[in-house]
Amino acid sequence: MGILNVTPDSFSDGGKFLNTDAAVAHGRRLIAEGADLLDIGGESTRPGATPVTEAEELQRVLPVIRALAAQVQVPLSVDTMKPAVARAALEAGASIVNDVAANRTSPEMWEAVAVTGAGYIAMHMQGTPQTMQHSPTYTDVVSDLQAFFNERLDRLEAAGVKAEQVALDPGIGFGKTPEQNLDLLARMAELRTRARPLLVGISRKSFIGKLLGLEPHERIAAGLACTVWAAGEGAEVFRTHDVAATVQALRMREAVASRKPGTR
Questions:
Q1: Which candidate in 205, 219, 251, 260 is catalytic?
Q2: Is 239 a catalytic residue?
Q3: Which of 48, 62, 181, 216 is the most exposed place for a label (fewest CB within 10 A)?
Q4: Inside any domain, residue 150
Q5: The one catalytic residue among 66, 82, 219, 239
Q6: Is residue 60 domain-resident?
Q7: Is 37 part of a structural domain of the chain?
Q8: What's the average model confidence in pLDDT over 170-185?
Q9: 162 has catalytic annotation
Q10: Domain presence at residue 263
Q11: CA-closest candidate to residue 219, choices 167, 178, 168, 186
Q12: What distance separates the 2 farthest-apart alpha carbons in the chain?
C-alpha cells in the first residue's frame, strides 16, 4: 500500500504533493515501483497534528482521487476519519476506507461502508492524534488489541459491514510507546482474528527514531527489517512511503521462505 499524503504537515512527506498534478504523478510512480493499492490522505494523523475541516480535506483529496481513478487500475483507499469525506471519496472512485478512528462510538462511518460495500481498514488508536502519545497505558497491549478487534468486528457486523470487507491494523505508533510497538511486532501472529488480513504501517515511524536516534529519512532500513519480521508473523498488507524497497525486501523474504523444507 503506497502512501500518498496530500497534506502540508505529515511527518515525513508533508507539503510535497499538495498540488494535484504532483500527487497524481507520485501515485503513478508508486504503482510503477510495485504498489498494489494507494492510500490517499488529506489530514495528517501524526502525533499532535492539527485537525482540518471537512471542506479542506475534501478539497485536498477529491481531485487526486478522481484523476487517479481515471488513470490507474489499482484500488484507491481514502485515509480519513470523517464519514462525509469517506462517502465523497467512494463516489469519486476510491474503493477502500482507511479509518484510523475505528475506535469511534458513532456508526455513521460503518453505515456508509455497509451501503457501498467498500473495503474497510479498522485501525486501533488509543485516544486521538492530539492525545495518543500522552502516556499510553495497557494491561497487556496484545491482549487488549485482540479484545478490541473482536469487539470491533462484532459492531461492524451489527452495522451491516461483512467480515470479508474488513482488514485490521494494530496502529503501530498510534497511542503506543516504543516498547509497546515492539511487543505488537514480536507477537503479531497473536493478532490474527477471525481470518481477517492484518495491515501494518511501520514506514519511517517515530518509534524507530526514538529507539535508534534516526530522522525520518534515515529510518528506511530499520522499517524494512520490521516489515520482513511482520510478514513472517502473518501480516499481509504493508503501508509504506518506500514502495520499491519494501517490494524488494518482501520478494526476497518470499524467495528464501520458498526454499525452506516443507514449504514448497
A1: 205
A2: yes
A3: 48
A4: yes
A5: 239
A6: yes
A7: yes
A8: 95
A9: no
A10: no
A11: 178
A12: 55
